[in-house]
Amino acid sequence: xxxxxxxxxxxxxxxxxxxxxxxxxxxxxxxxxxxxxxxxxxxxxxxxxxxxxxxxxxxxxxxxxxxxxxxxxxxxxxxxxxxxxxxxxxxxxxxxxxxxxxxxxxxxxxxxxxxxxxxxxxxxxxxxxxxxxxxxxxxxxxxxxxxxxxxxxxxxxxxxxxxxxxxxxxxxxxxxxxxxxxxxxxxxxxxxxxxxxxxxxxxxxxxxxxxxxxxxxxxxxxxxxxxxxxxxxxxxxxxxxxxxxxxxxxxxxxxxxxxxxxxxxxxxxxxxxxxxxxxxxxxxxxxxxxxxxxxxxxxxxxxxxxxxxxxxxxxxxxxxxxxxxxxxxxxxxxxxxxxxxxxxxxxxxxxxxxxxxxxxxxxxxxxxxxxxxxxxxxxxxxxxxxxxxxxxxxxxxxxxxxxxxxxxxxxxxxxxxxxxxxxxxxxxxxxxxx
Length: 434
Hints:
Blueprint: H1 3-20, H2 24-38, H3 44-56, H4 63-75, H5 79-91, H6 100-113, H7 116-133, H8 138-149, H9 159-168, H10 172-178, H11 180-200, H12 215-221, H13 226-240, H14 246-263, H15 269-303, H16 305-314, H17 320-335, H18 340-357, H19 362-376, H20 384-393, H21 397-420, H22 423-433
Helix pairs in contact: 1-2, 2-15, 3-15, 4-7, 4-14, 4-15, 6-7, 6-8, 6-11, 6-13, 7-8, 7-20, 8-11, 8-21, 9-18, 9-19, 10-22, 11-21, 13-14, 15-20, 16-17, 16-18, 17-19, 18-19, 19-21, 20-21
């Protein structure tokens, strides 16, 4: 079957499945089955079994449910309330006030998990109920969470950067260093947009009930942040000191959150079981989608669609700037249907020779790829962060996508800035290693 006809059929099947209301993971599996069937593959059952098992039975993936459980435990204690109480006096005079907790929380947690899904799920579990109870607008609660959750891919330790570094034979430590300034740039863009939106929509924000406290009192209120910050430093320190891997650090995070819950008197049989069941439900939902995305990615590899698109781009003979422009559109298109890691794995071997011939720095290109992949996390129909937030809120996926749209354009702005000023990614590694 011709590639063009195959793309049309698979797109129609995916949208029909999603509109029918079946589970997202089931829709991904269905499209993969159709793709393999139309490709005359006789080993669909074997491919299905090996792919889903190989994707889910990995030690690295064990960090995901553990970090989610940590968030569930914190959600059921007073620690999440303390997080807001400690930050509120400092955010009082910043337009948007507590909406910035989503951005700052995701920034901190991204440095712990390295996973976009784990960041969005854990911070969302803590902040969504608190912000809703304070009557903050839902569109900004969801938007800031969806956008900031993508930071898990950029701020080290990043799974995507590790995959890219291995594929492109680029130093992973230099890639981690290169991700610091672009990550900070995104935080500034997200907070800046929140400030501007809040200034023009002050009537949609709840009345500020936080008293204007003197500096001494603010510092005293900040003591309520110490348990949460201590837990984060405990987890982060174990990773960067080399004492633990990300998965082992996640287990330490669960232990630390249980300990804090016990010390603060919030740990009971009921809260323990409800946190465990909540983490199990969320983790199963995410893992099922990961398995479906992996099966679909493999099916796409059999059809040859990603490879054909990349080869056609290579045949155009574009200038470096035009090449980046076309590749942005190309990666955005793939992001509609594939998860981030699959995009990198499927296209790197074809795209990297083009990049090297154009004289583009492979270190810079790695950060660029991560930014484009981050955009795919908040674009339907296969925007992974959208699915995670839908699992937390039960809100329609298209509504969540609409709330996240401004942050999609902020990520696009970050890509434009990175292209115009490549030093944003390359300056720090050059200073630290040169």
